[in-house]
Amino acid sequence: MLDRESRVLEFGHVLERLAAQARSAPGKALCQALRPHTNYAQVAHAQEETAQAEAIFYKLGYHPVPEFQDILPLLARAQVGSILSAGDLLTVGDALACARQVKALLRREEEDETPNGVRDMGAALYENRDLEEDIRRCILSPEEISDFASPELAKIRRQIRSGGERVTQKLNSYLHNPQLQKYLQEPIITIRADRYVLPVRQEYRSQVPGLIHDQSSSGATLFIEPMAVVEINNEIRQLRGQERGEIERILGEFSARTAGSSEALRQNQQILTELDFIFAKAALSREMRGVAPRLNQKGILNIKKGRHPMIDREKVVPLDIHLGREFTTLIITGPNTGGKTVALKTCGLFALMTQAGLHIPAELGSEMPVFEAIYADIGDEQSIAQSLSTFSSHMTHIVEILESAGKDCLVLLDELGAGTDPTEGAALAMAILQTLQNRGALTMATTHYSELKAYALTQPGMENGSVEFNVETLSPTYRLSIGVPGRSNAFEISRRLGLTGDIIEKAREFLSAEDIRFEDVISSAEENRLMAEKERQVAQLARQEAQQARLQAQQLERELAAQREKMLAKAREQARSIITRAQAQAEEAVRELKRVKNAQDQAERDKVIAQQRSRLRGELGKVLETVGGPVAGSGQPPKDLKPGETVKVLDLDTRGTVLTRPDAKGEVQLQVGIMKLSSPISNLRRVEVQQTAQPAKRGGGKSVKLNNARSVNLELDVRGQNVEEALLEVEKFLDNALISGLSEVNIIHGKGTGVLRSGIQSHLRHHPHVAEFRLGRYGEGEGGVTVVKLK
Q1: Of the chain's two ends, which shows fewer C-beta atoms within 10 Å, N or C?
Q2: Exposed, middle or buried: residue 119 (CB in 10 Å: 0-12, 13-18, 19+)?
Q3: pLDDT tens digit sequence for 733-771
Q4: Which residues are annotated as a binding site for ATP?
Q5: CATH top-level class of 294-488
Q6: 729 burial level (CB within 10 Å; 0-12, 13-18, 19+)
């Protein structure tokens, strides 16, 4: 593809949006370097990669590749024997952690046997947990090595601390000596040149024997190392040198281990960069609401509801463009600013995006061929420096196009033949279009020439198209219609702008009869098309409403069947419970009667029989209440029902919301879940709602108020806190949620470096009241939120 065409069609702006979706500098560079393929197999592979990544993206809810740095320069230094700094080694550790995390996220699930090259790339990532964990354990920061990096380092630092304590103890004796205190500028111990010193006043220099290491800017204070601590400071200084040597040895050892894994780490960098790039394509598709176009090798282009990605999504007018079946040349006419150029650029940009492996912002079912070349002559190319007019500049470029364009090429020509005599310009345009058609190229051209409209009507393989213009509002609608040539609307626009009628009529006299009849035919065809379009929209709306009603009816039928099965299962369970309880009661009654059978006292026998009769009657009452409860309900049918009230639907054993007042038949409309249905009032009971939602009291989160108790947040925001502070908040938050009977809450920790998220999730993993937790899905905050389910 030519760079000029990519620039004219604004492909660079798409690449900028793509690069913004990448997480790493190498990934962004790969996005910026993306160029369209011309081989069908390469295009199909690139599109399949984007589709696979998009499927994983939607499943995870976020971009699975975290930010990582370019470690290739570090690996090159390690391979030649250089010692990497602590910060460099932390970067290597981060790269290993990144590879491990991505590999775990992309690991194929056992039941997932579908081929997926993106997952296979993740499986090829190299892991080295030993090196990664050793770096984390031994290197605390770019400036600090842990005491536990080696036994020798721990020993040296213990000796340094011991020496420091001895020096401090010795110098403290100076500070607490009343005779020496008056010689000191301040009663403190400080350090100069890695040696412990005291701040002594200049005039008392001779009273404190020792070595002078520094003085204040005013010269009033000297920093003196008393002779009593010189030897100890010398020991500490020697130990400091040993410490630096041991640290250098440790860093050298880690550098050697890094060099030993350099090839695997270099491969990791390549795979991670490629994955970052692929998931950036998926993220861009998600942002643009794009779809994977169906590829074909038949030269068929069919864009359904295509939206130019550089136009505001709320303002862009979708376009339907098709080429390659009934015709290969489309001539688009219409007024200026009507959207003709946008149609050309949308078609060309979609071709570039498709062949670069990007999804296009259109509807499912859109088809795109794979072009060997895309040519575009769009915009004002006048060049003062080269003394070229607009016509000359355009024609120079068109000549270049004609030298190369042929089969499997897309040619886009804006205002073909403009800038010269209309008669000659129209003739040239016809000849150019005929040449391109004979060569088998797919061609789209815009023009104002009526001759080209008539030419397209009579020429096989050519078709007219037009962009609509609202004469009443003097504004374009940007809708593209194929099959009808466009009108210039010059007379109507001039009339609306105030040009007098006599001038317009005089202008009409200069038109030939053929021109007038042709414009009238176009006007009539346009009116008929608009009428047909309105009728089609009405029919489509009616069809959609009928389909929606059918779907709702099917859903209602399924839900009623599920409710019926649920009620039957509940009834069976109740029946089993009743039978079991009745058997137990009967057996107990029999045992009691047997016990008093031989009793001599008739009164005692009568008393026991009466007790058992009363007890069985009581159990029978409970059974009748249980059996009758779900059907008959308790209480009276509600009166004066109003929309918005909550009621229990007895025959469904569920709750619903009243939508309308009772009608003449005594029925009301209800909203039950996603269903709307009618029910007689006798089948309803009014329900007093005990749980009401309350607005959040803090942090912008959600809260609920239960039984007039205190409000309990459904979300906790700990962004900006360190791990210790956040865990205190989390513990208190989970206790309140548990006491209030909540089953699920959200903890907002942000994405950031992941330290806060890891600390919180490690705490949740061992929390006695946490059943499970997960990262938020799309729409829940994704990787910046942890969703917790309580036991």
Answers
A1: C
A2: buried
A3: 888 887 766 788 889 988 888 888 888 988 898 888 888
A4: 334-341
A5: alpha beta
A6: middle
CATH topology of domain 691-790: Ribosomal Protein S8; Chain: A, domain 1 (3.30.1370)
**CATH architecture label of 3-128+261-288:** Orthogonal Bundle (1.10)
**pTM, to two decimals:** 0.61
Among all chains, which residue has been given the structure tokens 């470690």? 71
149-254 matches 3-128+261-288 in CATH topology = yes
Cβ 672 vs Cβ 702: under 8 Å:
no
Q: Which of 195-204, 357-366, 548-557, 610-619 is predicted least confidently?
A: 610-619
Question: C-alpha angle with apex 68: 62 to 74, nearest 5 degrees?
Answer: 165
Tell the residue number behind the tokens 């078709």, with chain if given: 463
Residue type, 603: A
> Coil, strand or helix: which one is 38?
coil
Fold for 149-254, please state it: MutS, DNA mismatch repair protein; Chain A, domain 3 (1.10.1420)
User: Tokens 């994977």 correspond to what residue?
Assistant: 292
Average pLDDT, the chain: 82
Look at residue 227 and tell me whether its pLDDT is greater than 70. Answer: yes
Q: Give residue limits of the domains in the chain.
A: 3-128+261-288, 149-254, 294-488, 559-626, 646-686, 691-790
Residues 305 and 366: their CA atoms lie apart, in Å, by 9
**Residue owning tokens 């008959």:** 632
Residue 62, CA distances (Å) to 108, 144, 461, 758 in order:
17, 34, 47, 17
Tell me the C-alpha distance between 112 and 110, whole Å: 5
Residue list, annotated binding site: 334-341
